[in-house]
Design goal:
8 strands, TIM Barrel, 8-stranded parallel β-barrel, binds cytidine-5'-monophosphate, alpha/beta, globular
């Protein structure tokens, strides 16, 4: 089922919980990133989980396979629903991550790969990383590696979601930030899409931060995002 994940990019526990308190009827899927996790530790994850939210823990692991396996086991024990890593760590690291994540009863959180960060440009890739291929080709290649390693999906632009499904299969999950309401403030995002358009292209999960967290009425903004995303049309 297509779902909207709210990026809870808040600096501390109080602000985060006060924001979530506004949702009295629904329990949105939330993304916790490095800032909040490093500031508050695993307890913030447990607290939000206790409140009944699903959690995407966005820590983007990238290390040797053994370290990633063991770290993923720790994250899995926090009972989160989705975690991620950098596909640049290679297939062996990705397989190790899956092993670490799998709980004794066989369940595990969804494991999603970051391909190339959107802050990495073609020139940075070529001149600093010595990767001399077109960026979109690199993104799809990393997505394919992730699929081969058994991962569940990738983080990508909604504009790339259709292509990723073509290459990696329709059940390979696309988690897509860079979403703005029609006519909304773009902020620092460069290539943006509306929830409706992302839904049409085939995105499975929208990640939306400021259009919801910064809205006068975040609950209404969240409901609008879900409706437009699932319905494929603007409200
Ligand atoms: O506020 P906004 O909707 O731009 O938030 C988008 C969220 O998705 C942020 O947490 C941001 O770090 C994350 N993200 C992104 N672009 C990527 C990967 C993650 O915007 N390529």
């Amino acid at each position: 089922m297509k779902d909207v994940i709210i990026a809870c990019d808040f600096p501390d526990r109080e602000t985060t919980l006060a924001f979530l308190d506004r949702f009295t009827e629904e329990k949105p899927f939330v993304k916790i990133g490095m800032e909040l996790f490093y500031a508050q530790g695993p307890e913030i994850v447990r607290e939000i989980k206790r409140r009944g939210h699903r959690i995407f823990l966005d820590l983007k692991l990238h290390d040797i396979p053994n370290t990633v396996r063991r770290s993923m086991a720790v994250l899995s024990s926090l009972d989160v629903d989705m975690v991620n890593l950098h596909a640049a760590g290679g297939k062996e690291m990705m397989r190790a991550a899956l092993e670490g994540l799998t709980r004794k009863d066989g369940t595990r959180p969804l494991l999603i790969a970051v391909t190339q960060l959107t802050s990495t440009s073609q020139s940075v890739m070529e001149e600093e990383l010595l990767i001399e291929k077109p960026l979109d080709q690199v993104v799809l290649h990393y997505a394919k590696n992730a699929a081969d390693a058994g991962l569940d999906g990738v983080v990508c632009s909604p504009l790339e979601a259709g292509k990723v499904h073509e290459v990696c299969g329709s059940s390979f999950v696309t988690v897509t930030p860079g979403v703005r309401f029609a006519g909304g403030d773009v902020g620092d995002q460069v290539r943006v899409t509306t929830p409706a358009k992302a839904g049409q292209i085939g995105s499975d999960y929208l990640v939306m931060g400021r259009p919801i967290t910064g809205a006068e009425d975040p609950v209404a903004a969240y409901r609008r995002a879900v409706k437009e995303f699932r319905g494929g049309t603007e409200a």
